[in-house]
Specification:
The protein is built from 5 helices and 2 strands, in the order ααβαβαα. It is mostly helical. The protein has a two-stranded parallel ribbon with strand order 1-2. 22% of the residues are buried. The model has no long low-confidence stretch (mean pLDDT 95).
């Protein structure tokens, strides 16, 4: 089995250092250029993407007709969605960096996210 994981191109919130989970933001011009730069560099394998526009647009610009699925969305940050990384309380940062015990208020616990994906 061969599996390639590709992150979507840049969005405004990525550039600003904000937590971006289920908010459906488009790619920036740089994000579109990043996606186009992938074209022809990846093997012709079946492609799946989050159903959010930044992921499906990245796949399309990279030359793939990806099957969209909500199961591949990033973690749902709940009340932390859009928060600046630098402004997060230390316990949230530590849990995210360790990939252990992260459960944002009103969002998706890390364990549930891992099970979904």
């Amino acid at each position: 089995m061969e599996l390639w994981l590709v992150r979507h191109g840049e969005t405004l919130w990525n550039r600003e250092g904000r937590l971006l989970g289920w908010t459906d933001l488009p790619l920036t011009p740089l994000g579109e250029a990043q996606a186009r730069a992938l074209k022809g560099r990846l093997p012709a394998l079946p492609a799946y993407a989050s159903d959010l526009q930044r992921a499906s647009r990245t796949a399309a610009l990279a030359g793939f007709q990806a099957v969209p699925t909500p199961a591949l969305r990033e973690i749902h940050f709940g009340l932390l969605e859009g928060a600046l990384w630098e402004a997060l309380e230390a316990p949230y940062k530590e849990a995210m960096l360790r990939f252990q015990g992260f459960a944002p208020p009103g969002g998706e616990a890390l364990e549930a996210f891992q099970e979904r994906v």
